[in-house]
């Protein structure tokens, strides 16, 4: 069994965290430190965009037009921070061989968060959200190529974060006025844009919701799905079971990101219990990737977050033992 984190961590020391993830988890990842200016998931994703310029407004990121030459000072700063992080990755991962994960905000969550030049979310405009998704997909291709160049021995895994997709599918994203909601997107429409991201590298789509749209993720070509085990309701578990039996890798979020840190048995028990209730093959349990329940940015300290990452290995061992019992 393997372990990884889901991206975000507390504090502002990228060097400390690069050392930590190379040491503590089986699938190291490029850490996101949202406590830094331009270090959050949206800013990092705006940094990856090609052919679209954006600036940072009090309400968040807003597209300002096309062409990298018109990138705002904010977008250039976000890109500079990403390059600095890649420099640290190259330094600390020198000679590394094995899986390496990078994260990006997915096209639907991005469209629901970023504004068009004349106001309201990109989500409101079918053509604009497709253009945004295409620009992001192109940027991700270039980003992955640069990471491969810097860490030649890496076997890249792409994590696409889609916390906003359930609201998009449900028509629950508010308009700019707040008086109404954006029209819902159907499943095939959601699959269409997500499919732009699942060919560049093995892709895991992450969504911490009670009922993440697992079927949408698998139909888009994702090889893995990352979920918060503590939140999943019964219909969601049915979809997860179907995906697992079809060969999809489950990234099981079992270690809480805040509160008391459980022991390995406590953290592994809900996953093992549900696995048995669903009648899933115990051998498939050995293919699960053990993760925190979500990103660790909300952890009270770097020491606390490190302890939660260190716990993952013991949880994986406990789950592996349960699979053999």
Descriptive notes:
By secondary structure, this protein is an alpha/beta fold. It has a single domain, classed as TIM Barrel. Helix content is 44%, strand content 16%. The protein is built from 12 helices and 9 strands. It has helices spanning 14-24, 41-48, 73-92, 107-113, 126-150, 165-170, 187-194, 214-219, 234-245, 264-277, 282-285, 302-324, and strands at 2-3, 52-57, 60-66, 98-105, 154-161, 203-206, 224-228, 249-255, 289-292. The strands form 2 sheets. It has a 7-stranded parallel sheet with strand order 1-9-8-7-6-5-4. Strands 2-3 form a two-stranded antiparallel sheet. Helix 1 crosses helix 3, helix 4 (107-113) packs across helix 5 (126-150) and helix 10 packs across helix 12. It is globular. The model has no long low-confidence stretch (mean pLDDT 94).
Question: Features of this protein?
Answer:
9 strands, 12 helices, two-stranded antiparallel ribbon, 7-stranded parallel beta sheet
What is the topological layout?
Layout: E1 2-3, H1 14-24, H2 41-48, E2 52-57, E3 60-66, H3 73-92, E4 98-105, H4 107-113, H5 126-150, E5 154-161, H6 165-170, H7 187-194, E6 203-206, H8 214-219, E7 224-228, H9 234-245, E8 249-255, H10 264-277, H11 282-285, E9 289-292, H12 302-324
Parallel strand pairs: 1-9, 4-5, 5-6, 6-7, 7-8, 8-9
Antiparallel strand pairs: 2-3
Helix pairs in contact: 1-3, 2-3, 4-5, 10-12
